[in-house]
Specification:
The protein is mostly beta strands. It is built from 1 helix and 34 strands. It has one helix at about 5-25, and strands spanning about 30, 55-60, 80, 85-90, 95-100, 105-110, 115-120, 125-130, 135-140, 145-150, 160, 165-170, 175-180, 185-190, 195-200, 205-210, 210-215, 220-225, 230-235, 255-260, 260-265, 270-275, 280-285, 295, 300-305, 310-315, 320-325, 335-340, 340-345, 350-355, 360-365, 370-375, 380-385, 390-395. About 5% of the residues lie in helices and about 45% in strands. About 45% of the residues are buried. The protein is globular, with a radius of gyration of 20 Å. The strands form 9 sheets. The protein has a 4-stranded antiparallel sheet, with no helix packed on it. A 4-stranded antiparallel sheet has the order 3-4-5-6, with no helix packed on it.
């Protein structure tokens, strides 16, 4: 990808603004230089004039613990398939439920869980990861432990299970492929680790049936064959510019999105990029900074920015379609498509539903605690707050 001098200057100015802004809201690892962050107050919510019913509650429970660090910003993903779900608490509890919310089993692994749960329905395996780099696999129906493996670095995001491999990204820059059956290491792939990076990593995802896509703290995407770890290609997405290491941070912490032969990714340093996978050509690059995954629909790619904007772009041309600042500085989650609407969560446990055509908020639902990640499974929206409140909503009929 080649940028013009004018584009580079514009991006550089934006990046410097974004870097300062991000320090106000995001933990940075690798330095402690006495910088006192400036905190922007979250905007107050304005009542919706004529709200509509979009989501109806299905299930909620609290798995929080007094011993857990509720201020820890890490996300915990819910493992879900058509028959059951498996959730994990920050205190080390792993709990299986059926789809009606009946508790089936519970185990405690005795240490903090950081990445949440990934469930493979075919093998009935649930995988969790811990702060100290341990990976544990359980029978998702009974809770019986199957294996455990120790990695070289902490794992802060859920695993990807595909092609009989459990694929993980560790904070030391190492990527791992484990045997789904035994947990033994099959392959490792080392990436560059910058001196300073944002605390977090992007969850691995699938590029195609045989290839895993992993984003790293140096602003790159790596396509790796899932079964044997052979690198296919690597591309820089985040382009940090500036005189200091902080200004040059270019993490890609939001999981890349692959949809209809298009790849979308966004970086901390302020680049939202779209790539045509057939030609490997860049379709567009827009200036927006985020640490959250994107959402896509037939026409749009949607992002939540570091400062709390929700922005929709044309997924083919990159043209900005609309922007909403009504949730500024509310520490927004990733956007997701649920039914015909865009959903975004915030620091107060509120899920806001947007009309994708206009960008206006049309509905809200509420849970308890701060939301960091939203998940969609079919017509259901899944949330788990930092206080341990697990909730499921379904698109209203």
């Amino acid at each position: 990808m080649t940028l013009s001098m004018r584009s580079r200057k514009t991006i550089k100015a934006t990046v410097m603004h974004v870097a300062v802004l991000a320090l106000m809201t995001t933990a940075v690892v690798g330095c402690n230089r006495g910088i006192k962050p400036v905190v922007n107050d979250p905007v107050k919510l304005i009542q919706i004039a004529q709200p509509i019913s979009v989501l109806q509650p299905v299930f909620d429970t609290n798995i929080g613990s007094k011993n857990a660090n509720k201020k820890d910003p890490l996300s915990l993903q819910i493992g879900y398939d058509n028959d059951q779900m498996v959730v994990a608490s920050r205190a080390g509890d792993v709990i299986g439920f059926d789809n009606n919310g009946k508790r089936l089993w519970s185990v405690n692994i005795g240490k903090p869980i950081t990445g949440g749960v990934t469930v493979d329905a075919f093998s009935q395996t649930a995988v969790v990861t811990t702060r100290d780099g341990q990976v544990l696999a359980f029978d998702s129906m009974t809770g019986a432990e199957r294996w455990e493996q120790q990695l070289s670095g902490s794992v802060l995001t859920p695993a990807l299970i595909t092609n009989n491999r459990v694929i993980l990204s560790a904070t030391d820059g190492s990527l791992h492929g484990l045997s789904l059956q035994t947990g033994q290491s099959v392959w490792q792939f080392a990436t560059q680790v910058p001196a300073i990076s944002v605390r977090g990593t992007a969850a691995p995802t699938l590029l195609d049936d045989k290839t895993a896509l992993l984003a790293t703290a140096d602003g790159r995407l790596h396509a790796i064959t899932a079964d044997n770890g052979l690198p296919q290609w690597s591309r820089r997405i985040g382009v940090g510019m500036g005189s200091s290491e902080i200004e040059r941070m270019s993490d890609v912490d939001g999981k890349p999105i692959v949809d209809n032969n298009q790849l979308f990714a966004i970086s901390y340093s302020g680049q939202l990029i779209a790539i045509d996978l057939a030609s490997r050509q860049v379709m567009f690059v827009n200036e927006l900074a985020s640490l959250k995954s994107l959402a896509v629909n037939n026409r749009q790619v949607i992002a939540t920015s570091l400062d709390g904007k929700i922005v929709a772009y044309d997924r083919r041309t990159g043209e900005k379609l609309w922007e909403n600042e009504a949730l500024a500085y509310r520490k927004l989650t990733n956007p997701v498509m649920i039914g015909n609407y865009i959903a975004v969560g915030d620091l107060d446990g509120v899920v806001h539903l947007f009309d994708p055509a206009t960008g206006t908020i049309v509905s809200r639902v509420q849970t308890k605690g701060t939301l960091t990640t939203l998940q969609v499974e079919g017509n259901r929206l899944l949330t788990q707050s930092t206080s341990g409140q697990v909730a499921i909503w379904q698109v209203a009929q």
